[in-house]
Amino acid sequence: MPGFDAVIGFLYQFGDAAAFLVLCASGLAIIFGMMGVINLAHGEFIMGGAYTTVTVAKLGVPLPLAVLCGALAAGAAGMVLERLVIRHLYGRPLDTIVATWGVSLIASQGTLILLGPSLSDISTPLGSVEIGALSYSVYRFVLMGVAAAILLGLYVLFNFTRFGVLARATIQVPHMAETLGVDTRLIYSLTFGIGAALAGATGGLYAPTMTLVPTMGVQFITEAFVTVVVGGGDVFLGTAPAGIVLGFIKSGMTTWEGQLAGQIGLLVAVILVIRVLPRGISGLMLRERA
């Protein structure tokens, strides 16, 4: 039987992995699941949020407000990108792949040229807590709570507010919504901005825990896409279960054979899901409801 410390350590790794996956994927799930846009620049929005958060925090601003600034900066950049590029590519998923890939290259290489190969980081707040014989980062527990709070906030936003009703109507039947007087262009722009802002918030939240480099978005985008593919198109039904399942797989494989095994486990999981559940977990749940 595993000891108490081993069980607590596994649960901590599981919660940390699940929170990371949910936070990475939430913004991407909105943009892809609700708008049908494959955004390969998602990682660069995360990077932008992290850079903004650290820059603002170094000016003496408390970390929560600095993270908010990072989210707002990424959201504003996302709305600009939607107006200038994405708006002309709706219904053309292959074109959005090429366009957002180009934007990601411009953003990462531009950051490298302007700000250098790395940015000095900030320390992880809140210290640590001892459980049994091991010590755990309190900030990681906060990230777990934030991931759950973001999912709950998105559910309330898109199901119980006027904006949520208009967003769902615009995405499901845009021509009918426009006929009824809805400014569909504004709704698309705001929805894309929310997805980008969530990416920026993710970067800001994880900025104190990692080294900031212009290519840091790559560390996030792979796991974000894996989570979205496994979860399916419905951000509310798919993202949380996918994060839990993949978090369990990643933490279990990492505990068994190290971090590389955890990454391999995620990739094997997404291959199996594509084969067995092409519409992901949410597609299965919606089919069972029907």
TrEMBL record:
It is found in: Cell membrane. This is Branched-chain amino acid ABC transporter permease. It holds the Pfam family BPD_transp_2. The lineage of its organism: Bacteria, Pseudomonadati, Pseudomonadota, Alphaproteobacteria, Hyphomicrobiales. GO terms for molecular function: transmembrane transporter activity. It is a multi-pass membrane protein. One of its GO terms (biological process) is amino acid transport. Belongs to the binding-protein-dependent transport system permease family. LivHM subfamily. GO terms for cellular component: plasma membrane. Keywords: Amino-acid transport, Cell membrane, Membrane, Transmembrane, Transmembrane helix, Transport.
